[in-house]
Amino acid sequence: MKRISEQLDHLFEPRTIAVIGASNRMGKWGYIVPANILAGGYKGKVYPVNPKETEILECPCCPSIMDIDDEIDLAVVTIPAERVVPVIEQCVEKGVRTCIVISGGFSETGERGAELEREMVAALGESDMRLVGPNTMGIYSGPVSLHALMPPVRPVAGKIAFAAQSGNLGTQMLSLGKALGVGFSRFVCIGNESELKCADYLEYFAEDPATEVILLYIEGLREARRFVEVAAETSPRKPIVVMKAGKTDAGARAARSHSAALAADESIFDGVMKQAGMIEADTTEEMLDIAKAFAAIPHPRGRRVGVLTWGGGWGVVTADALAKHGLELVRLPDETLAELDAVLPPYWSRGNPVDLVGTLDLSMHFRCLEIIVRCEVVDSVITLGTMGATSSFQSFVLEGQANGDVERDTLKPRVIGTEFLSALQKTDEAYRNEVKRLMNETSKPIIAVSFPTSGAITPMLARQSEVVIYPSPERGAKTLAALYEYHRFLDRERALA
Which residues pair with 48 in a beta bridge? Predict the structure, then answer.
């Protein structure tokens, strides 16, 4: 049998796609899915299949998959559950390599649906065809611009592969990732896992050269032992970030009705996850926070943190957050304090966090950041408030316009000068470049915290392929702790090798 990497290449990088149940009716999945594929920029061949149509979305339509005069790497099935089994039999006869069954109405609905699902899997027989789903929202593959999805989602291409047991949650995470600058290499909605299991996708992502970080949303596990074995083999090479839902009785019941998932015992799952080196996210927010950091910045070599802050209060909050997650607000040595004395006003607090006492002098920010990150007792740095300042001032202007406090067409320098805003925009970009330079030279992580006003996502937050920015110090500290946890796991693995 072929290796999983070879088999699933036909799924994630197909040259030919057949959409079975394709339709000209705009409200049907048979219209939406091929429309997403074509609109997303996929360059391969797309064959709509429907015996009642001759053309769909300007593509010639075939009565059945058997009438396509081409080899098919991927078939996408959008017909009702009761008609799926004969179609799977035709796909097997045709020699289709992979298949996605979008349709619901299988084991997640009860015994009749479970019987249909068993018949569908039995129809695969001894063939090599691999099957995604059923009850799935499809897949995304960045390297080939493939958006074989139900919702019209356009993720940012990147380094993170994501497998989710919820298509709704998964695709919304792709959209949120775009807003936050989190890029994805692959995405698959696992669905009911009738044939391909979570462990199969994990094994593929482990060998995928387009993927550097793996993200999983799990409600329950089938073939749990194999999943743990694959995770343990993968973690030393690529970080795996997991959110396990269905931990409560109520959540477990919801998981069974949603994806027919069998929830694992929480204590057992937590134990094997840590043993296998996986990193747990407690919320969907943390999933993206941690994954984007793994994809962009170095791991800390220790727990000692230096903090640079524009004002004292946020430094105190950050100190509490670091302590909560087992990180150390390190005492800076006398020689480092002396270097900072030469830069900062004489009334600065002479400690860690390093308080910039509200100065707008950019050169002072740069110099203090470099002094802290190059300090021998500092393993990582959190810098608060400098990046993203532009957006705060812009929000002030826009809110003033909305409230009638500022004339839209007569914005005067005495309120807030356009030259000042332009200077702040340059500050954001310069600080970003300085963070990248220092991380490259020291191999130490630097996490930035911006403070968007009114809950807005700032433009700086949406550009995070090489730096990471969070809207609160608590989220930055939690992420830094996750990076350090993974570094400790790698150290243990090296010691045992």
Answer: 19
> In this model, does residue 355 exceed pLDDT 80?
yes
What is the chain's alpha carbon radius of gyration, rounded to the nearest angstrom? 26
Number of Cβ atoms within 10 Å of the Cβ of 364: 16
Asked if 321 contacts 473 with a C-beta cutoff of 8 angstroms, the reply is yes
Q: Is the pLDDT of residue 402 over 60?
A: no
Could you tell me the pTM of the whole model?
0.89
Q: Is the peptide bond before 353 cis (omega within 30 degrees of 0)?
A: yes
- Over residues 326-350, the pLDDT tens digits come to 999 999 999 999 999 999 999 999 9
Q: How far is CA 332 from CA 337, 347, 350, 435, in A?
A: 7, 17, 9, 20
Instruction: Give the orientation angle of helix 312-324 with respect to helix 473-496, to 10 degrees.
Output: 40
* Closest alpha carbon to 150 in 68, 30, 234: 30
Q: How far apart are CA 143 and CA 157, in angstroms?
A: 8
pLDDT at 1: 63
How far is it, in rounded angstroms, from Cα 281 to Cα 213? 14
C-alpha 387/C-alpha 458 separation (Å) is 10
What the chain holds in terms of domains, given with CATH numbers, is 1-135 (3.40.50.720), 153-296 (3.40.50.261), 298-490 (3.40.50.261)
CA atoms within 13 A on the CB side of 315: 19
- Which pLDDT score is estimated for 280? 94
The amino acid sitting at 52 is K
Helix 224-234 to helix 266-275 angle, to the nearest 10 degrees?
30
The pair of structure tokens assigned to 277 is 């080196």
**Distance from C-alpha of 175 to C-alpha of 181, rounded to nearest angstrom:** 10
280: which strand partners?
242
Distance CA 471, CA 452 (A): 6
Q: Is the pLDDT of residue 57 over 80?
A: yes
Predicted confidence band of residue 463 (pLDDT cuts 50, 70, 90): low
Q: Which helix (H) or strand (E) holds 175?
A: helix 167-180
Q: Rounded to an integer, what distance in angstroms lies between the CA atom of residue 377 and that of residue 370?
A: 14
**In this structure, are residues 43 and 145 in contact, taking their beta carbons and an 8 Å threshold?**
yes
Q: Which residue has the higher pLDDT, 65 or 1?
A: 65
